[in-house]
Amino acid sequence: MNDKMLKALNDQIREELSSAYLYLAMAADFEDKNLPGAAAWMSQQAQEEVAHAMKIYGYINDKGGKAVFDALPKPQESWNSMLDAFKAAYKHEQYITDCINKLVKQAREVDDTSTEIFLQWFVTEQVEEEKSTDEVVQKLQMIGDSKNGLFMIDRELGGRGAGSGSE
Ligand SMILES: [Fe+2]
Ligand SMILES: [Fe+2]
Predict the structure, then answer these.
(1) pLDDT, tens only, 8-63
(2) CA 104 to ligand 1 centroid distance, Å
(3) Would residue 142 count as lying in a domain?
(4) Which burial class, exposed, middle or buried, applies to 3 when counting CB atoms under 10 A from its CB (0-12, 13-18, 19+)?
């Protein structure tokens, strides 16, 4: 694999693990604030980000490259509200989309078709990632300062991945 392409994919492993770190920090903050549903949602999101990192790790190995790991930035520890945290998560996903788009561009520049095709999964995934975080932002904006609304949204978020069939 092209050296620069390999470096860029390794950088993306770091971005994905850094996303996991961020979402785990959000989960911990929600736990601390007695919002178990939002905590479970973010904790699952963190696991998905680790899976994204592993996907790239596997691809690098398949291509005969070597994965190398850079230091992860320390995530923020606390957010003012659930809305603030989800807004930050949405913004972060937009940033990740940007990273993925740059990777695709780079794969095209070095005429690396297999990497370009590999990255398609991430392009599609980012549409879902932006949508799911923005949906929560919209709901939280709708309820405003309602404690009752917050309680209900937290319960709803806790149902994610529990096989409730709601998604
Ligand atoms: Fe990701
Ligand atoms: Fe993500």
Answers:
(1) 999 999 999 999 999 999 999 999 999 999 999 999 999 999 999 999 999 999 99
(2) 15
(3) yes
(4) exposed
In terms of residue numbers, what domain contains 44?
A: 3-71+79-158
The CA 95 to ligand 1 mean position distance, Å, reads 11
Ligand nearest 54 Cα, by number? 1
CA atoms within 13 A on the CB side of 93: 25
**Cα 2 to averaged position of ligand 1 atoms, centre (Å):** 23
What pTM, to 2 d.p., does this model score? 0.93
Kindly tell me the burial class for residue 156, based on how many C-beta atoms sit within 10 Å of its own C-beta (0-12, 13-18, 19 or more).
middle
Closest alpha carbon to 87 in 150, 145, 138, 160: 138
Q: Which residues surround ligand 2, an ion (CB under 5 A)?
A: 129
Averaged pLDDT score across all residues of the chain: 95
Distance 21 CA to ligand 2 centre (A): 11
Query: What are the Cα distances from residue 62, in Å, to 67, 103, 116?
Result: 11, 18, 15
pLDDT at 5 over 90: yes
CATH number at residue 101: 1.20.1260.10
